[in-house]
What we know:
CATH topology of the largest domain: Phenylalanyl-tRNA Synthetase, Chain B, domain 3
Helix content: 25-40%
Strand content: 25-35%
Mean pLDDT: 91
Number of domains: 3
Amino acid sequence: MQWIGLDLEHINEEEQIIKVEYNPNRPDFSSPEGIARALKGYYDIELGLPSFEIIPGEIELNVDSSVKKVRPYIVCGVIRDIDLDEDEVATLMNIQEQLHWAVGRDRKKVAIGVHDLDKIVPPYRYTAVKPDSVSFIPLHGDGYPMNLEEILLLHEKGIEYAHILEGKEVYPIIFDSKDEVLSFPPIINGIITTVTDDTKNLFLDLTGTDFKAINLALNILSTTLADMGAKIESVKVNYRESKKIITPNLTPERWEIGIDYINDYIGLNLSSDEMIKCFNRVRLDAKQSIKNGYLDAWVPAFRGDIMHVVDFTEECAIGYGYDKLPKTIREGCIGEYHPIQSFSNKVRMIMIGAGYLEVLNFLLTNSEKHYNYMKQEYKASNHVQISNPVSKEYDTTRTNILPKLIETLLYNRSEEKPIRIFEVGDIILLDLGEETGAKREVHLSAVTYHELADFTEIRSTLDFIMISLGYVNDYEIKSDYNPSYINGRCGSVYLKGKKIGEIGEIHPEILINFKLEFPVAAMELNLQNFF
């Protein structure tokens, strides 16, 4: 398995079960079929692009313009003649959830609906409605009709994913021609389309905020089902303003790659024919380009990880065989951790020992949540603003970690309490004195969230950190004012007389902004100041 980049965790020869861990950059490995497809190339069983036939279909879905502001994109597909037993139904649901994680950002970017096609009547309609205007019996509910607002408040999946629709005046929904509810994306399907081991034909709907991502997820899911023996049938999706598309679209993408470029990266001297064979083994097609020294390569539509020409160097190396690559160590090229990285890793282990769970957030963030939600004033003097952000959710760089940790609590507020999390990561500050105009610092931030969270608890965590690092007599906390904390229950942390951070109980107004119902105690330290 390591030959195609998979970590092999466990082999049970008696039950013929292999457990592997796949990386998020290969979501087509989220199923046994996807892994088998890749291994066929490596073992020369099948080479080049996998071939899938798409039967032209007559089923249509009409998209109403009302979804534009809530969840604008949808693609669909039909799967015919699927033969599912109970275990395969469970496998299908597992693939669905794996794609929600790997491609869909936990349904925010992509949500997948899988339905029994024979229980609904086309054409279908994707629209948006008022939260209390439509009722249906949701899947895995109590068997009673609920309106959309009630589902978000009372249903298990509604509670878990309500944050995705937060602040929306209307909610997306999919009807059939008889006004039966197929799905309330990205939350839950209607019970009427439940897939069982008797299901023979499937209707797939994928909604989201990223058109490229929902197409990728549809291509992965439909080709996986085709490898299970089913037939793929296309669906006509009629968007507003007379725009019509037919999905799924499995047309491979063409790339032009330099032979010398690939050889230079992986330290080989492969001929064009040898390189073509390497690409064929990783299920890509390639041939000589009309441009001298180049190859034309085709990437299948279920591969979402090829984003730059440099990605073909890894594909070529896998096709050649990692075990065959020459092993060399050049003089002066043996690396080691930077001191701040070594220190950060030590702090991480201390926090884990204190009972905290590590999280990782993006360096980019939303300026409103970073400043307004935290009762902080926007400071242009230390603030890096993104001039042309792809999304308003990522329009600035973070100047401290705490706002993202509290936002993490928002998305996990339904989890069992207490919740104690931390992050060791970078922040970016504007510094006109620097050549680049910005400087990087490494911070530690930690929060504890439950009914009894208070200053004493977070102070005990700080004490544990300082004792573990050997600074037991070198630090102190002085009373200070910070609008993000409750006045009188916060302070600044000093190490050998130099301020290194803040600690205290989060202000109730901030808890309301992030829709948190229990107290939060927090701290943030600048780890650079320990050096």
